[in-house]
Amino acid sequence: GFVDWTEIHTLYAFSRIFVSASLSEMHPMTYIEATMSGIPLVTRKDDSCMDLVLDGKSGYLAETDSGMAQRVDELLSDRKKLESFGKASLENSLNFIAEYNVNGVLAVYKIVLDQFKKSAGLKFQTKHTG
Q1: 92 contacts 56 by C-beta, under 8 angstroms
Q2: Is 92:31 a contact under the CB 8 Å cutoff?
Q3: Which of 3.40.50.2000, 1.10.3720.10, 3.30.160.270, 3.90.1200.10 is the CATH number of 1-96?
Q4: For residue range 89-123, what is the model confidence (pLDDT) as tens digits?
Q5: What is the pTM assigned to this prediction?
Q6: Measured at the alpha carbon of residue 85, what is the angle toward residues 81 and 89, in degrees to the nearest 5?
Q7: Using an 8 Å Cβ cutoff, are 73 and 82 in contact?
Q8: Backbone angles phi, psi at 14, to 5 degrees
Q9: How far, rounded to the nearest angstrom, does the alpha carbon of residue 96 sit from its chain's CA centroid?
Q10: Could you tell me which residues come within 8 angstroms of residue 13 by beta carbon, excluding any fewer than 6 positions away?
């Protein structure tokens, strides 16, 4: 059922693994929340998760439901691997914080504006040199 966004973190705190059998995600917010909680992810292989799940390091990307079940079983039976994957998941989550993404977009805008200024300057000089 519905859980207020301010309480979501408490549910992740009780979790050892995040599992999703979704075949397609547009913006996998729950996956991001799980990584930010330091939880390994076991999901279906999907392009939208490729950056979120470092296959074999912070979680697993499975081709089938039975493959997912095997990976969940593997993690639950190996405490060291579960902890290692959780740490890797948390570390990888830093790539998805808003400030990081905003700064990346701003850097792209700066590059585009700088290129525009250079090309506009060349056009301006060409018009006034003749």
Answers
A1: no
A2: no
A3: 3.40.50.2000
A4: 999 988 877 676 677 778 888 888 888 888 876 55
A5: 0.70
A6: 175
A7: no
A8: -90, -5
A9: 6
A10: 37
Does residue 59 contact residue 41 with C-beta atoms inside 8 Å? yes
> Nearest CA to 38 among 10, 17, 21, 11?
17
Give helix then strand counts, H and E, for the chain.
5, 3
The 10s digit of each residue's pLDDT in 31-64 is 888 999 999 999 999 888 888 899 999 999 999 9
In sign, the C-alpha dihedral spanning 80, 86, 26, 109 is negative
Pairing of strands 59-62, 41-44: parallel
Amino acid 73 reads: D
Based on its alpha-carbon atoms, the radius of gyration of the chain, rounded to whole angstroms, reads 21
DSSP 3-state of 58: coil
CA dist 26 and 40 (Å) reads 20
Taking a C-beta distance cutoff of 8 angstroms, is the pair 69, 11 a contact? Answer: no
